[in-house]
TrEMBL record:
Organism: Spinacia oleracea
All residue ranges annotated as the AB hydrolase-1 domain in the record: 153-280, 409-472
Residue segments, region Disordered: 275-295
A Pfam family of this chain: Abhydrolase_1
SUPFAM superfamilies: alpha/beta-Hydrolases
InterPro entries for the chain: AB_hydrolase_1, AB_hydrolase_fold, Epox_hydrolase-like
Transmembrane segments: none
Protein known as: Uncharacterized protein isoform X1
Origin superkingdom: Eukaryota
GO molecular function, one term: hydrolase activity
Length: 493
């Protein structure tokens, strides 16, 4: 069978013609140049008429001749191959990142990236230092005033799903502000920090391996970088979930932290009515004690018998409660183990990939007050860690670590320890934060004695990215007050 065609039409001599779905084929034929726009229009005009001539425009052809193989298969097969290729490419992509070519984190490092090993984990970090002299073409500001130097270095702790990239707009200005180094590092499971397993982080002197994805590990890593900066004290700046790490690091070594700056802190603040409830409870207890003391002045056998029976019933109830608590702890332990086993399954990893693919980019835009201001450069900065090997399993391990945080259970609840913070604290939040509402920050500021609250208008969950100039100005004023010894703040000497 012979095929011949010109620039406008493809003709078939002595054809065997079959009519398949014409819409898909015509669209592909037009895109590939087999049909011109005029021919496409003529087809829709006369497409319902059966061809009478032996030489007709080729709509779809099914021929047994081997010459058709030069076109890459039959016309009916071509769309299927094209569609299957697109589906395969879509399946291997997460948030626009090809998952068939994942790399080692070091291969994705920036020019200013640094790596260090801590307890078996290769942590990615960046350091900025104050410039010795400013170029003349730069605008002078309060950050350039030598009288405003704070002196202590700063460590930045990013939030969930973020990395050192989150601080790229404020690190250099802060380095110039304090006249010292500023450092940001990627917490395990995020950024370009290596993804490792539990056993890798075990040490000879440890009874149990330290989970690299736990809050305790991030706290120890923070203290490690304080020593790395060779400073007596440092300012800890935590954003969202990074605020929890900053606060826990303070409680671990309060003498090493000069100030805390909590940005949109993802810390559940205690209710404002908690203190008043405790006061009311104590008043009731005092009233009960007073009534008992007055009754003791007039002893009665029936009263004493009632007291003995009350104590016995109290012991019995207390025993029952303890037994029930033990049963609940066993059930809770078994339940958590089942959840952990499920989370570490291949199904959970697939689910995490689906969630990141579906909502990852949307979550970044939602974190801003105006999602239209999120540029491609910002999206690339947040999706870059998706190019690293094992990012999905590490994220699952991070979730498991939060559920199985045994060290947190050994401590008193954080909301009861907040009142013990004695260093200066600044809380910064956006008035339109959709992830951590500003009212939570307001409650948190009331729970921490002497803390300062600043709310940035028309700002979302990322003040240091969305409003960097205003954020820097607020922090500058705060550190200036700290360095000048303002009486409005509580100081740790």
């Amino acid at each position: 069978m012979a095929l011949s065609y010109n620039s406008h039409q493809l003709f078939l001599e002595a054809p065997t013609i079959k009519y398949f779905g014409r819409t898909n084929f015509l669209e592909i034929s037009a895109k590939q140049g087999f049909l011109s726009q005029d021919d496409l229009g003529n087809f829709w005009k006369f497409g319902n008429r059966k061809p009478k001539s032996r030489i007709n425009p080729l709509f779809t052809v099914s021929a047994a001749s081997s010459s058709s193989s030069s076109f890459g298969g039959t016309a009916s097969d071509y769309p299927e191959e094209l569609i299957s290729e697109r589906i395969k490419k879509k399946r291997s992509s997460i948030a626009g990142i090809d998952q068939d070519e994942l790399q080692d984190p070091r291969q994705l490092a920036d020019s200013d990236s640094c790596f260090c090993e801590f307890k078996g984990v290769h942590i990615h970090y960046k350091v900025c230092e104050a410039e010795s002299s400013m170029s003349k073409d730069k605008k002078t500001s309060q950050l350039d005033d030598p009288n405003r130097k704070f002196g202590f270095p700063m460590i930045f702790l990013h939030g969930f799903g973020a990395s050192t990239f989150s601080w790229h707009r404020v690190m250099k200005p802060f380095a110039q502000l304090i006249g010292s180094k500023v450092l940001a590092f990627d917490r395990p499971a995020f950024g370009l920090t290596s993804r490792v397993s539990h056993s890798v982080c075990s040490q000879a002197d440890d009874t149990k391996p330290l989970n690299p994805y736990s809050t305790a590990f991030s706290v120890l890593a923070t203290l490690y970088f304080i020593d790395f900066l060779k400073s007596e004290k440092t300012v800890l700046v935590g954003h969202s979930a990074g605020s929890l790490t900053a606060v826990e690091a303070y409680f671990e070594a309060p003498d090493r932290v000069s100030a805390l700056i909590l940005v949109a802190p993802a810390i559940v603040a205690p209710l404002s009515a908690t203190n008043s409830a405790k006061e009311n409870q104590s008043d009731k207890e005092n009233q009960v004690q007073e009534s008992n003391s007055t009754s003791d002045k007039h002893p009665n056998l029936f009263v004493k018998f009632g007291q003995v029976m009350s104590k016995c019933s109290g012991y019995i109830i207390n025993t029952i409660v303890q037994v029930l608590k033990g049963i609940m702890n066993v059930i809770s332990s078994l339940y958590k183990k089942a959840i952990v086993a499920l989370l570490r399954s291949a199904l959970a990893v697939t689910l995490v990939r689906m969630i990141i693919n579906k909502f990852g980019i949307a979550a970044v835009r939602n974190a801003w007050y105006d999602g239209n201001q999120v540029t491609d450069h910002i999206l690339q900065g947040y999706t870059k860690p998706l190019r690293t090997k094992g990012w999905d399993k590490a994220l699952v391990e991070y979730i498991v670590a939060m559920l199985m945080d045994t060290q947190a259970k050994q401590k008193s609840p954080l909301d009861k320890r907040l009142q013990n913070i004695t260093c200066p604290v600044l809380i910064v939040t956006g008035d339109s934060d959709r992830l951590v509402p500003s009212w939570n920050s307001e409650r948190l500021s009331r729970a921490i004695p002497g803390s300062q609250l600043e709310i940035i208008k028309n700002c979302g969950h990322l003040p240091h990215e969305e409003k960097p100039d205003e954020f820097i100005s607020i922090v500058t004023n705060f550190l200036q007050r700290v360095s000048s010894g303002s009486e409005e703040l509580c100081f740790q000497t």
